[in-house]
Amino acid sequence: MNTIFDKILNKEIPADIVYENQYALAFKDINPQAPVHILVIPKTRCKTLSELSLIDDDSQLGYLQGLAATISLLGLTSGYRVVFNAGTHGQQTVDYLHAHILGERQLKWPPG
Ligand code: 5GP
Q: Residue 61 gets which letter from DSSP?
């Protein structure tokens, strides 16, 4: 499957990249839901967080390190939220694993 995130990863379409390591790519969401809204994807494709264990250990660890490094560099001192939407109930719209990092506004709980 060739999703929009495959195309961003392959530089077929542009994205505003904020962080990259060997295993992860972080870029701004095109339709931000908070003043800071960043997506972090693994460079080794998988579909959901529950499928992350199917890729090799270095790719799993490198992705999670990339996610943590992205959060760190954003400097969200008042807090933030990380969301992984998955499947139909999770309202996932792009079938390529991605973490949403949301920050710089007061978020509510429970989510809708
Ligand atoms: P999901 O609903 O699957 O959890 O999140 C997909 C996210 O991808 C949405 O927040 C949407 O705004 C974002 N998105 C969709 N297409 C593009 C695109 O072409 N570029 C960027 N940067 N984000 C996109």
A: H
